[in-house]
Amino acid sequence: MKNVDKIDRLILRALEDNADCANKLLAERVGLSPSACLRRVARLKEIGAIKKIVAVVDPDCYERKLSVVVSVKFERHGLQARQNFFDQLKRERAVVQCYMVTGEVGSIIILHVADMDEYTELTDRLFNEDPNISAFTTFMVMSKLL
């Protein structure tokens, strides 16, 4: 584990909740002076505890209203066998998240697409045409709870 203490973990939790939190407010929340808090955040970025700052955008704002969860089974499970697939996912605008997981499937992918036509085209290109994909299962998101 990276060298983080209790205050660092408080900072990380606060930033995970709201990465746009002003430094002064963040410092108050964790019991530090603003300058000490700023130094800690910079250090957390430097050591890689904070990988990047992102905005979680409502898909409705860019007309990608259909959220989809896809589980993928691989024919071969070595990293090299999957690497081309993962590289292709990184180039896809619709791919929001991708996880390698344990269990029956090898990967879980979260997509935001405009409509079923875009989803169908994407599945043909990503899943049906990849010889290392043995099966995939689609779950259409009905509502977001958290």
Automatic annotation (TrEMBL):
Example of a GO biological process term: response to amino acid
Protein name in the entry: Leucine-responsive regulatory protein
Keyword Transcription regulation: yes
Lineage: Bacteria, Pseudomonadati, Pseudomonadota, Alphaproteobacteria, Rhodobacterales
Keyword vocabulary terms for this entry: DNA-binding, Transcription, Transcription regulation
InterPro entries tied to this protein: ArsR-like_HTH, AsnC-type_HTH_dom, Dimeric_a/b-barrel, Tscrpt_reg_AsnC-like, Tscrpt_reg_AsnC/Lrp_C, WH-like_DNA-bd_sf, WH_DNA-bd_sf
Source species, domain of life: Bacteria
Entry-linked PROSITE patterns: HTH_ASNC_2
Source organism of the structure: Roseovarius aestuarii
Boundaries of every HTH asnC-type domain copy: 4-60
GO CC annotation, single: cytosol
GO molecular function, one term: sequence-specific DNA binding
The encoding gene: lrp_13
